[in-house]
C-alpha cells in the first residue's frame, strides 16, 4: 500500500511572520495525523524560519525550486545542498510555472532532479499538459516526453527519492479541475510508463499525486482513485482550515 502524500505549494506568498503563523496552525490541527506524509513548500526566504517552527513535527518542508549545481558563480540561484542545510527534505522540480514562465526544458529539469536526489533530498517531479495539448489529443504524448526527458539516466535506486506529480496546466489556478476519471486515466498512464522505463514493482511502489485546483470539496473524489496517491495543493494550502481538510481526505 502506497503511503498518501499531501504537499502544499505556497508559490509567491507569505512573509516570515505569516508563514510561521500558518505552519503553527497546521501543526496544531494535524498533530494526530500519522498515516500520511505532509509537506509545505514556502518561498526561499522563510524556509529556515518555517523549518525551525516545525521542529520535529509530522510536517516536512520542501523548496519550490533549485539550481542543479551545488556552488559556484550562479548569482541568484539556490542549490539543493543549501536547501538541505535550511531544513528541506523535498524539492519541487519541473513545476508547470517553471516550464511555462521561465522556459525550463526537460534536459534542465533532468539535471535538477539528479542534483536533488544526489543530495539525499526527495524530488517532487511535476509533469502535465496544456489545454491546447489536451484538446489536440496529445496528453499521453506530452507526458511521455516529459517523463522520459526528466528521468533520463536516473538509476532505479534513485527513484526511491522521487514523487511524481501530475498537474494538468489547464487546471492550475483556473478553478477548473480534471475529473476524477480524467486524473485517474493520466495517473494510470504514468504508472504504466514507469513500469516500462523501470519495472512493474517500482511502478507499483512509486507515488503519483495530482495537482490542479485541489480543494476541500473535490479532494475525496480525486484521492479515491486507484492510482492517485495524494495531492500537490496550490491556493488551498494558504488557508490552514482548507489544507487541514485536504490532508484529512476521506477517500470513498
TrEMBL record:
Subcellular location(s) of the protein: Cytoplasm
Documented EC number(s): 5.3.1.1
GO molecular function terms attached to this record: triose-phosphate isomerase activity
Top EC class of this enzyme: isomerase
Gene3D superfamilies, per the entry: Aldolase class I
Pathway: Carbohydrate degradation; glycolysis; D-glyceraldehyde 3-phosphate from glycerone phosphate: step 1/1; Carbohydrate biosynthesis; gluconeogenesis
GO cellular component: cytosol
Catalytic function, reaction form: D-glyceraldehyde 3-phosphate = dihydroxyacetone phosphate
Main localization category: cytoplasm
Positions that bind substrate: 9-11, 173, 213, 234-235
Highest taxon above the source species: Bacteria
Active site: 95 (electrophile), 167 (proton acceptor)
GO aspect biological process, one term: gluconeogenesis
Keywords, ordered alphabetically: Cytoplasm, Gluconeogenesis, Glycolysis, Isomerase
Role: Involved in the gluconeogenesis. Catalyzes stereospecifically the conversion of dihydroxyacetone phosphate (DHAP) to D-glyceraldehyde-3-phosphate (G3P).
Recorded family membership: Belongs to the triosephosphate isomerase family.
Subunit structure: Homodimer.
Protein name as annotated: Triosephosphate isomerase
Organism, scientific name: Syntrophotalea acetylenica (Pelobacter acetylenicus)
The encoding gene: tpiA
Amino acid at each position: 500500500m502506497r503511503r498518501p502524500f499531501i504537499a502544499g505549494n505556497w508559490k509567491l506568498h507569505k512573509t516570515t511572520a505569516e508563514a510561521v503563523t500558518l505552519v503553527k496552525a497546521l501543526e496544531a490541527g494535524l498533530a494526530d495525523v500519522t498515516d500520511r506524509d505532509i509537506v509545505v513548500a514556502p518561498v526561499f526566504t522563510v524556509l529556515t524560519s518555517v523549518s525551525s517552527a516545525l521542529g520535529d513535527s509530522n510536517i516536512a518542508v520542501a523548496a519550490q525550486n533549485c539550481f542543479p549545481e551545488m556552488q559556484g558563480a550562479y548569482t541568484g540561484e539556490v542549490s539543493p545542498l543549501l536547501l538541505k542545510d535550511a531544513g528541506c527534505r523535498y524539492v519541487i522540480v519541473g513545476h508547470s510555472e517553471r516550464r511555462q514562465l521561465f522556459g525550463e526544458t526537460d534536459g534542465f529539469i533532468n539535471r535538477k532532479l539528479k542534483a536533488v536526489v544526489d543530495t539525499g533530498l526527495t524530488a517532487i517531479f511535476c509533469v502535465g499538459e496544456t489545454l491546447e495539448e489536451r484538446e489536440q489529443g496529445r496528453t499521453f504524448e506530452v507526458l511521455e516526453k516529459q517523463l522520459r526527458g526528466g528521468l533520463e539516466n536516473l538509476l532505479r535506486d534513485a527513484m526511491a527519492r522521487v514523487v511524481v506529480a501530475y498537474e494538468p496546466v489547464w487546471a492550475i489556478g483556473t478553478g477548473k479541475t480534471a475529473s476524477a476519471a480524467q486524473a485517474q486515466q493520466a495517473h494510470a498512464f504514468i504508472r504504466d510508463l514507469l513500469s516500462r522505463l523501470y519495472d512493474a514493482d517500482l511502478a507499483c511502489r512509486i507515488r503519483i499525486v495530482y495537482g490542479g485546483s485541489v480543494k476541500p470539496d473535490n479532494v475525496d473524489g480525486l484521492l479515491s482513485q486507484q492510482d492517485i496517491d495524494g495531492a500537490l495543493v496550490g491556493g488551498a494550502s494558504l488557508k490552514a482550515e482548507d489544507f487541514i481538510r485536504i490532508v484529512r481526505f476521506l477517500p470513498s
